[in-house]
Every structure is written in C-alpha cells, then in structure tokens.
C-alpha cells in the first residue's frame, strides 16, 4: 500500500532467484507505484458489464470482460492455480499501444476468475505500453515476468517483474525491477550489422537453463527483411548478454513476433519442461510473422554446443511450412503444466467483424480453447487436441447410427444446441478409380479451398458439416473434406469455408484450408468441431490439422442455429461415427465479488 503522504514507494527487494546462492538485491530506490497511475481509479462500470443477450459472445471460450484483447501472455500453473495473462486495452474494443496485462486465474482451465491487472504503463521504460512477454518459473518455484515495454522514446525494451507476495497463489500484485530495462536495442540509424532494431525488438520467450547454469531467452526482431530470434544469456536473470548469434534466422519473412521455443518428446504423448535436453527430444520453434499475420513452426535439433537451432530438412518458415492452425490463430504461447505433464497451447483468435461492429458490441478478440501439444509418431509434425477438461461441459449426448450419406444429401443432427456444441464425426470412403485428379499447380490449399468451396460439386467431396446453419441454408459455415488422386497417393484437402457464414456484407468471409496427412482408404477421416456462437474450431485426423474460424451469422444465432452433415459430391460416403453434445456455459471472468470492480 502506498504511504498516505506521497506518490512514491521506496522498495527494497530481496529475492533468491537461483539455487547457486545468487541473490538479486534491488537497492533502495524510489519507484513510481502503479497505484498512483492516472488509470488507477478505473473500474468496470455498469455500462461496461458483460451483455448476456449478445448472440456472438462465446459461452466457453476465454474472453476479457469487455473491450480489446489480443495475445495470450505468460500462461502457467502456480501452487495449483492456472494463470492466464493477456494483452488488454480496458477502454475501447480497438487496439492501442498503451496496452496492459490483463490477468485471470482458474483451477480447471475452463472456468476463470478475473484478477487485478498485473502490469500497466507507469515507468519511462514502459510508459507507452506493456506489450507481450512470458513467464519463467525459477528454482524454488518462483515465477518472473519478462515483457516488452514501449519506452518514452517509443523504443521496444525488455523488462522484468516479480510477484510482490509469493505466498499468494493468485499473484495479484507484481513489482517492476528497478534495474529495468534489462535488454535494449539500438536506434534504427545505427549501421552496425549486428545491431538490434530498437523499433522491432519484442516478445521475450520463456527462458531455459542448460547445464552450464546460464539462462537463455530469445526475443523477436529483424534486420531489414531477415527475421531473427536473438539469443541472450544470463547468470542471474538480471544482467543479460546478447550472444551475437541468433538462435535461428531466416531471410525474407520480416520481423518475428512471439517466438516460442520448447522441447517435445519423441515417442511419448507427454509434455516436456522447457529446459529438458536429451536424445529422446526434438525442439520446436514457433514464430508469428507480422508481415503475413500467420504463424509457423518448425521441428528440429537444438545444438547446445553452438547454441543454435537447426530445423529438420524440409521444415521451413513460409507459406509451405507447418502451422498450428490454418485459420484465425496468432501470437500463440505454450507452457508446461508440471502437475499433469502436459504442454498446453493458447492462441489469440482475432476478429472477422469490422471495427465499427466491434465498437457496437463492445468487445474484440477471443482465445482459442487451450490445446495439448505432442509430437506426432511420424516425428514430422505436431498433434493438437482440446484439453480433456473441455469434456466436462458436455451435456445432452446425441449419437446417430453408422450410415451411408449419398451424394447431394443432407442429414440434420438435432436435439442439441447447435450454436454451442461439440461434435465428433468420422467418414470412410471406398477405394475407387473415380477420384478427381490433383492438378500439379494446386499447391496452395487455402486458394484451392476458395476455388472449390462447399457448393462446388466434386466426386469424393465436399463432405463434412454445415455449422451455424440457418433453416433455409441462407447462412452456414462449412467444414469439409475433398479427396484427390495425386501421382502416388490420395490427397486429402480440409477446408473451412466462410463464404456463406453471414448475410452481413461487412464481415470477413475467407476460406481456409490445409492438406491433411492421412490415408483416406485405410483410415477414417475424422473431424471434431467446437462451435461457440461466433467461433468454429475444427480438428481433423485426431489433431493433425486445425482450422479456426470467426463468423457472425445474422439468422443462425442461438436456438435458430442448425447443424447438418452434408455430402455435395457425386459419390456416396459412409459415416462411421456421429456423436454430438450441447455445451454448458463456463464461468469466465466473473468478478471476485458482486461489484465487478477491476482496478490497476
């Protein structure tokens, strides 16, 4: 609590950070306390409350109470409590540079309680915004935040914050280190080839520690059009040194945002702590590319002798590379849950509505359902799946018998709440010579899906689900497969087609697509889709490929929404399994008391 007679708090911080006996001692120094910031008296007033009548607000996906939300930051588990921090602008449903760290806690990753804002602009090194970052759990179970601050010169610098009270499992208060900033770039007019562009230097990763005792962290930047993950090392987590060589870099794809670097076990469906090294692990480097607003990951080898990451052959950061999600999914962040041995992934799902519509509805941005991440048995890609905890929201189980769906047919899945549902379906196709040939120029699946949408008849496909459909099919979001015959094998295209998702002419109605690594003759083609009012998350082939869509139907809302299985191909397809559930509403960001007060 700030003293009554002044707006400055004298702090003396003494925290053991390393088991080696090193202690960070912040000298007595006057630090501007967040409680005295101009924004500190901000509360959520009655007009800022959640609108329960909003047909587009999600029921079980994470959202901020109101206004703008983007990147997930610093997810972790601490003393049995899950934490999610997120980029939040509390005043408008539009992005603003002077952003803060929102904060919520949970015991099950589904129901969330709003906590006080963790970080807000207050010091010269972050006065223009507290941008994205990560949390690292130091020895003796001590979490710390590394985050990007926008300083008083609008340069991007890296800062450290510590919990004020480690005995508080909810970590409601955080203290910024007096030594901040800890990592800085150089002005853009510096011609040194090794300089870090201070205007494009952001989003520190979770740190990891090797046997030499040094901590390592990467920060995204660029040199001209070369993207880099700049590598810093530290003995004490305060004094950081640029190694001079990036962990990894690639020419031509611009600044790398929100880098995430972590190990995955080979042959085990378990998560791995970020510092795990061994012959039984590979490493993943995920990058969010600002220029395309898509993110890509590669799988490869971490050479600890040279401190560099080497992607496997064919693993690339480009449009031909691997993505967590081939729809709206960006600025993702993973963490290791040491209580369940899972690596859990969060991702921001941005809007398809216009800014004017966002202002009207009073919010913008949703987080995807958290997913577990493991290495596929092939070792060539990751597999993602909604957390098992999501299943506890299922109710009203509906199961239909196995059946053949003829070409041109439509089957309704009724007796569930189709606007708030979880559905699993699998298909089987017979071996046939009557399969559409794959043109050698059809290399981009998103373009192919836009050309061959749900209404374009094929042979085997399109077949799949029409979600958030209106009674007369004026509106629907189609998720489907289409089968082609390649030179040596069958090729499976998965599409999420939003071209008829809404009669509102202003919404974004893209089609998304990916090729799925599955043998459609010898394996079932499976889909799991989470439907939640304005979001459709689709997982195919048991999580090998994922596509997330944001849609704003005008007719197919609430109890007016329908769910159908469809086959618009000429050939019959067998449905081997259909099971669907209505989903209960989760408790998300309700206030810790009935007054809904939220303060800095």
Short description:
The chain is mainly beta.
Helical residue percent?
under 10%
The CATH topology of the largest domain corresponds to Tachylectin-2, Chain A
Low-confidence stretches: 1-48, 592-600
Describe the biggest sheet? Answer: 7 strands, antiparallel
Radius of gyration: 24 Å
Number of strands: 43
Q: Mean pLDDT, nearest integer?
A: 90
State the secondary-structure class.
Answer: mainly beta
Q: State the end-to-end distance.
A: 13 Å
Tell me, briefly, the overall form: globular
Helix count from the secondary structure assignment: 2
**Beta-strand proportion:** 35-45%
Q: How many domains, as an integer?
A: 2
Query: Can you tell me the CATH class of the largest domain?
Result: Mainly Beta
Features:
single chain, 600 residues, mainly beta, Tachylectin-2, Chain A, Jelly Rolls, 7-stranded antiparallel sheet, 7-stranded mixed sheet, 43% strand, disordered C terminus
What can you tell me about this protein's structure?
By secondary structure, the protein is mainly beta. It folds into 2 domains: 57-385, Glycosyl hydrolase domain, family 43 (Tachylectin-2, Chain A, 5 Propeller), CATH 2.115.10; 399-583, Sandwich (Jelly Rolls), CATH 2.60.120.560. The strands form 9 sheets. Strands 29, 30, 32, 38, 39, 40 and 42 form a 7-stranded antiparallel β-sheet that branches. Strands 31, 33, 34, 35, 36, 37 and 41 form a 7-stranded mixed β-sheet that branches. Strand 2 (14-16) and strand 3 (23-25) form a beta hairpin. The two termini are 13 Å apart. 48% of the residues are buried.
């Amino acid at each position: 609590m700030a003293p009554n007679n002044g707006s400055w708090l004298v702090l003396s911080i003494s925290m053991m950070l390393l088991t080696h006996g090193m202690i960070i001692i912040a000298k007595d120094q006057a630090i501007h306390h967040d409680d005295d910031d101009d924004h500190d008296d901000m509360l959520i007033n009655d007009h800022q409350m959640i609108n329960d009548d909003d047909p587009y607000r999600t029921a079980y996906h994470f959202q901020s109470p109101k206004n703008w939300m983007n990147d997930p930051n610093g997810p972790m588990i601490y003393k049995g409590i899950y934490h999610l921090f997120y980029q939040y602008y509390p005043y408008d449903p539009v992005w603003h540079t002077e952003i803060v760290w929102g904060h919520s806690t949970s015991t099950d990753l589904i129901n969330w309680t709003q906590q006080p804002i963790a970080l807000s602009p207050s010091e010269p090194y972050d006065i223009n915004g507290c941008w994205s970052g990560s949390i690292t759990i130091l020895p003796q179970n001590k979490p710390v935040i590394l985050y990007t601050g926008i300083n008083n010169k609008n340069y991007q610098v890296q800062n450290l914050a510590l919990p004020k009270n480690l005995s508080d499992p909810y970590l409601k208060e955080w203290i910024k280190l007096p030594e901040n900033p800890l990592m800085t770039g150089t002005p853009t007019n510096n011609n040194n080839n090794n300089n870090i562009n201070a205007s494009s230097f952001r989003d520190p990763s979770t740190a990891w520690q090797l046997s030499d005792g040094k901590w390592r962290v990467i920060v995204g930047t660029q040199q001209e059009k070369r993207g880099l993950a700049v590598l810093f090392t530290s003995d004490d987590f305060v004094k950081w040194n640029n190694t001079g060589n990036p962990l990894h870099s690639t020419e031509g794809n611009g600044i790398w945002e929100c880098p995430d670097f972590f190990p995955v076990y080979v042959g085990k469906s378990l998560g791995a702590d970020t510092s795990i090294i061994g012959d039984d692990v590979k490493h993943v480097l995920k990058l969010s590319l600002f220029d395309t607003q898509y993110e890509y990951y590669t799988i490869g080898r971490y050479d600890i002798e040279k401190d560099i990451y080497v992607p496997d052959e064919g693993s690339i950061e480009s449009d031909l590379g691997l993505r967590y999600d081939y729809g709206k999914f960006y600025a993702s962040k993973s963490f290791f849950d040491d209580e369940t041995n899972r690596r859990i992934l969060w991702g921001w799902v941005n809007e398809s509505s216009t800014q004017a519509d966002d202002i009207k509805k009073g919010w913008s941005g949703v987080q995807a359902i958290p997913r577990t991440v493991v290495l596929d048995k092939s070792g060539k890609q990751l597999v993602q799946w909604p957390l098992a905890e999501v299943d506890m929201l299922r109710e009203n189980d509906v199961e239909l018998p196995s059946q053949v769906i003829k070409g041109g047919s439509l089957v309704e899945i009724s007796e569930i709440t189709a606007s708030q549902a979880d559905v699993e379906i699998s298909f089987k196709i017979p071996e046939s010579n009557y399969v559409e040939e794959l043109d050698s120029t059809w290399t981009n699946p998103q373009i192919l899906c836009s050309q061959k949408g749900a209404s374009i008849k094929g042979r085997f496909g399109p077949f799949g689900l029409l979600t958030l459909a209106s009674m007369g099919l004026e509106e629907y979001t189609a998720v489907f497969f289409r089968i082609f015959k390649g030179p040596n094998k069958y090729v499976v295209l998965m599409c999420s087609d939003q071209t008829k998702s809404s009669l509102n002419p202003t919404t974004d109605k893209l089609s998304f697509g990916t090729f799925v690594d599955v043998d459609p003759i010898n394996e079932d083609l499976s889909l799991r889709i989470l439907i939640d009012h304005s979001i459709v998350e689709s997982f195919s082939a048991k999580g090998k490929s994922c596509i997330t869509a944001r849609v704003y139907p005008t007719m197919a809302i609430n109890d007016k929404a329908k769910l159908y299985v469809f086959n618009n191909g000429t050939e019959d397809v067998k449905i081997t399994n259909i099971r669907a559930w209505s989903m209960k509403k989760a408790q998300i960001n309700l206030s810790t008391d009935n007054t809904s007060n939220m303060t800095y």
